[in-house]
């Protein structure tokens, strides 16, 4: 059991699980827009997420020498390096415009992590903006990157999907912020810090109603998709409503983070 727990911790701490969620959303984009050649984008997103998330999580601590290179961290460093090589390889298979957009998101990751201006904090510590940066990056990488790479027209349908996906990621991040409320620096001004946990849950609940309501705006509206998205919305809502500071990291970092994968699997099964 101890070995399995360590294996699970490595799986979560090395960002493989969050990368799998990103991969699932990219493949979902391929399914929704009938993009047959999607593997380069999906693999780039998967390996790039491992590199990006690990860089964000461990770079600052490593630079200040507050992080000892234990066995697990050495393994994470090795995995990140191998993932970087794979991300670069997949990057070479993308279209030129897609490469430029990918570099833009790489720049946002650097801005999110490194302080570029003297005596200034990085974007991660800019009060109140963290949640928007992360949600926008997820939408950009999982939706617009594969769409632009496949030269799919940017129609109203694309932007409706983008809004729904932004809402989903935004509410999932709210779950993380509630659970991390005691650990987060008060100066971060996360949503629960600014409006309280109960109002955060009400905000998330209203956003999930919007998430479902947007389904009625689709030209090819069908009840199967509505039921599927309603089920996902209810799942997210339950995770949000039961979130509190006493929950373990597995509640958000494993179970809540699995919802995009669940959505992709259900989409394949019912469509």
From TrEMBL:
Residue spans crossing the bilayer: 7-26, 32-56, 76-94, 100-117, 129-148, 154-179, 225-243, 250-270
Transmembrane in keyword set: yes
Keywords: Membrane, Transmembrane, Transmembrane helix
Protein name: Prenyltransferase
Species name: Flavobacterium buctense
